[in-house]
Amino acid sequence: MSEPLNFAKAHSEIGILPKMANRHGLIAGATGTGKTVSLQVLAEHFSRIGVPVFMADVKGDLSGVSQAGGDNPRVAERLKQLKIDDFPYSASPVVFWDVFGQQGHPLRATISEMGPLLFSRLLNLNDTQSGVLQLAFKFADDNGLLLLDLKDLRALLQFVGESSKTFKTEYGNVSPASVGAIQRQLLALEQQGGDKFFGEPALNLDDLIQTSSDGRGVLNLLVADKLIESPFIYATFLLWLLSELFERLPEVGDRDKPKLVFFFDEAHLLFSEVASALEDKIEQVVRLIRSKGVGVYFVTQNPLDIPDRVLGQLGHRIQHALRAFTPRDQRAVRAAAETFRPNPKLDVEAVITELGVGEALVSILDEKGTPTPVERAFVIPPRGKIGPITPDQRKAIIGRSSVFGHYEKMIDRESAYEVLKNVAAPDGHGTADADSAAKRDAFKKSREQAPVSGKPAEKSVIGGTVFKAFVAFTMSAARSIGTFVARQVTRGILGTMTGSKPKR
Q: What is the Cβ-side half-sphere exposure of residue 15, based on CA atoms within 13 angstroms?
């Protein structure tokens, strides 16, 4: 059996067994009680046994994990208190990611990958608006339209709005007011930096599952101090990434250690104002992703931030101090105490409010998957530096990264925007000129003579001469870029209510 990853010490050391590390966990506690250090300690342990990690650096102070520690008097004092000698300070291999591309490699997804369900949450749409967005994605899927960036989605919504009469029979009612509301939300999203997040080259998940030359797992740090100012973008992005991992990774069964560990910091944002249907999907992902070899660790201030169905799946618990100033705080203390396996030597409910910085109530799963009795323990300090690094240090790490140069330049290839911009809507609206009309007629003739994938031209999804020409135009453009032809795209379990994801 593999040696435990000893991260805390009471009367003896306490550690997570590597083969149990994909059973998920919770790190909770009030601000300033030591959650971030606990996260760093666990991440370092996973790296040392060759397990890659993804985590968000919300406050900007996790970057120190890339440098060896040793110059912190508080760390020295804690080591002396715990009677730990010859402590091996060391740095961990790190890759920095940044949605805005300022302090790390740009991190992007495409609109098609995100899907209508997550995009509806991202834009905070109501049910009617979400229905219109679902319709737009369905039309794009049916007609092979690439949705890569925000301008593609805006062009698609404009076409759907102008085509509302002809969409009614096949797809349902389209409210111009709903289309306008979605467009306004897209504008707000763009102003928050969404134009930088959506596009290509999109993230290759294999780049998150890397090991260094000496076999250590790479720590992927998402720079999130600015991103967290847009909490819906932050939470939706991490949720999308989690669902992508679930969709892409194969079933691996029980492994001797995880394939990847995912830390979800500020986890309360994930479940804030979330629709019940989406919460069901989140619970499903957390429950099933364990079989893909992924361990998920939620980091939050209050255990009540996590729905019971998800909380019940978190076998490893590190509970830092909670404050009981309000009735809700008192309920959180009781709830946290009740979730631990009792220890007759501890009054858990009382101890939670007494814990010092770096001290925690700890329970982990034993070799049989049974929670151990809760213990009061000190978290062992990290081997890396606590706190942020300098801009020059960050720049040097980015420059020598194995993915440097791949994501830095955005690519804008032909997609839905280019296809739709000169095509008149079937209701007779749009801005197509005579030249584009002639092109549509030529495409129509070519489609009637050589139907795509055996589908006759007269069986277009909506019907009408102009729309038939539009479909022919779309298919020809799709053929020219060699993808998404005559097949419905698929996206991940959270992409739509039925699940599926685009293949590239």
A: 16
